[in-house]
Amino acid sequence: MPSLCLEINEAHEQCRVALTLLDPMTSRYSSWDFGLDRDYARVSIRFIAWLLDFILIAGPLIAGVIYLESIDSAARPARADIVMMAVILYITLWWLYTGLMHASCWQATLGKRVARIKVTDRQGKRISGVRSLWRTLMWMACWMTLGLGFLVIMFTRKRTCVHDWFSGTLVVRANGIL
Questions:
Q1: Does residue 12 carry a pLDDT above 70?
Q2: Hey, where are the domains in the chain?
C-alpha cells in the first residue's frame, strides 16, 4: 500500500511539473536564451493584443458617450465636455489597467494573454508595479510623438519600442495554453 501511495504522489508531481511547463503565465522563462529572435513578440501580435485591450477599455466608454449624446435634456453636458471626460477617463483607466496587469502574475493584459505574449524585465522575470506604471506612462508618451516611438520596433533585434527601452522591459512570446 505505501508503494502505491508513493507512485500516486510521483505521478501527481510529474503532472504538476508538466502543467507548470505548459502554462505560460506560471512558468519561469529565466532559462530561455533571449538572444533568439523567435522568442520576442512580433509587431503584428503586439498590435492585435493592443487592439483587443483597446476594445475592452474604449468600447464601454464609446457606448457611454453615445448614450449621453442621445439624452434630450437641458441638463445634458455639452458635447465637448462629454468627449473630454471620456478621454480623461480612458487615459486613467488605460494607465491603471495596463500598469497593474503587467505587474500581475500573468505579466500581461487580457489582450496580451489572448495573443500569448507577456512583459518581462531583461532577465525574463516579472516586472514591479512601479516599473509597469512607468512603462505605461512611456507608452503614452510614444503616442504623443505621433507613433514614432513605436516604429523603432521594426529595426531592433529584440523587437523593442522606445517605452521598452526606458523601462528596461521585453515583450516575449509565452508559449502554451492560456
A1: no
A2: 2-173
